[in-house]
Amino acid sequence: MDKKGILSKCTDFASDLLKNSEVGKQMEVAKCPNCGQEVHAHATFCGHCGYQMKQPSIGIQADDKAVVSVVKQSANSGTVKAESAPQNIAVNVAVSIAPVGQLKTNRSLLKFLLFGFITFGIYPLVVMSSISNDINIIAARYDGKKTMHYCLLFFLVGWLTLGVAYIVWNHKLSTRIGNELRRRGISYSFGAGSYWGWSVLGALIIVGPLIYLRKLFKAMNLLAKNYNING
C-alpha cells in the first residue's frame, strides 16, 4: 500500500473517531428550517431567529401499550392490586384510607375516677358523651343505628323514665360495641353480657360496675385504634 492509501485510511479513521466523540457531537451543525442559518445539531431553539428546532423532552415517558386496570381493592390492607397489560405485571398501590379525624384511644378507669372527683362529676359526662359520639362515627355506616348522646340521657331522658333509660341505653351500647368488635375481627370479649354481669349483678360485690367501666373503656379504645387506621 502506497503512502497516499495509508494517509487516506488514517484520515478516514480520525474523521470517524472525531464524529463519534463528545467533541465531534458538539461540532455537529444543522440548518434552521426557518432562517437557514447553521445551528448546533442538538439545539432545541435556533440562536438566530428563535425557531423551535425540536420538542423538549419530558422526564416521564408513558408506554401506550401498557393499559392498567384495577382488579382488586382490599379495605383492610389499604392496597389496590392492579395488572398491567400486555405483560400482566401485578402492581400494589398503597392507598391511605385512614380518616382525617382521629378518635381518642386513651380512656382509662383511673383517669375517669380521678378527674371525675376533681371536676365534681363533669369529666365522666365528657367521657361517656365521647363514647356515645364515637360509636356512632365508627359503626353507624355498617349497622345503621344511632346511640343517644349521653348528655341527653343524663339531663332529660333518664329523669323522665325514672332511670329505666339508663338500663336500656347501656344494654344497647354494650351490644353495639360487641357487634362492632366482632365485625372488625378484634379479639376482645365484650357485649350486653358484660353490662348485665358486671354492672348490674356485679353491683352486689361493689367493684362490679368498675370492672364493667374498665372493659367498656378498653373495648372503645380498641375500636378507636382500628378506626384510626382502617376507617
Could you outline the blueprint of secondary structure elements for this entry?
Layout: H1 3-20, H2 22-27, E1 29-31, E2 38-40, E3 67-74, E4 79-85, E5 89-94, H3 109-118, H4 122-143, H5 150-160, H6 164-183, H7 192-200, H8 208-230
Antiparallel strand pairs: 1-2, 3-4, 4-5
Helix pairs in contact: 3-4, 4-6, 4-8, 5-6, 6-7, 6-8, 7-8
Outline the structure in words:
It is a single chain. Helix content is 52%, strand content 12%. It contains 8 helices and 5 strands. The protein has 3 domains: 28-56, no CATH class; 65-97, no CATH class; 109-230, no CATH class. By secondary structure, the chain is mainly alpha-helical. Strands 3-4-5 form a 3-stranded antiparallel beta sheet, with no helix packed on it. It has a two-stranded antiparallel sheet with strand order 1-2. The protein has helices at 3-20, 22-27, 109-118, 122-143, 150-160, 164-183, 192-200, 208-230, and strands at 29-31, 38-40, 67-74, 79-85, 89-94.
Instruction: Work out the helix count.
Output: 8
Task: Estimate the global geometry from the Cα principal axes.
Answer: rod-shaped
Low-confidence stretches: 22-26, 57-77, 79-94
Largest sheet: 3 strands, antiparallel
* Widest β-sheet, arrangement of strands: 3-4-5
Number of domains: 3
User: Roughly what is the average pLDDT, rounded to an integer?
Assistant: 79
